[in-house]
Amino acid sequence: MNHHDLEHADPPFPELGEEVELFLETEAREGVLLYERDGELQKKPMAPWERGLKARVPVHASPFRYCFRLPQGYLGSHGLERTLPRYDRFFHLLAKPLPPEWALGAVFYQIFPDRFRQGRPELAPKEGAWLYGGRPIRKKAWHEPPGEDGAREFYGGDLFGVLEALPYLEALGVEALYLTPIFQSPSSHRYDTEDYHRVDPHLGGEEALRALYEALEARGMKLILDGVFNHVGATHPWFQKALKDPSSPERGMFTFYPDGSYASFWGVKHMPKLDYASALTQERFVFGKEAPVRYWMRLAHGWRLDVAHSIGEGGTNRKNARWLRALARAAKEEREDALVFGELSYDTVPTLRAHTLDGAMHYAGFAHPVMEWLSGRDLHGNPVALEAEELWRALFDHYAALPLQLRHAMYTLLSSHDIPRALWRLRGDKERFKTAYALLFAFPGSPAVYYGDEVGLSQPNPYEVWRGDPYCRAPFPWDEALWDKDLLAFLRRLILLKKTHPALRLGGLLPLKAPPGVLAFRRRHRGKEVWAFFAKEEVRLSLPRGVDLLSGREVAGEVEARYLLFEPSE
Question: Ranges for the Glycosyl hydrolase family 13 catalytic domain (predicted)?
Answer without folding.
Answer: 110-498
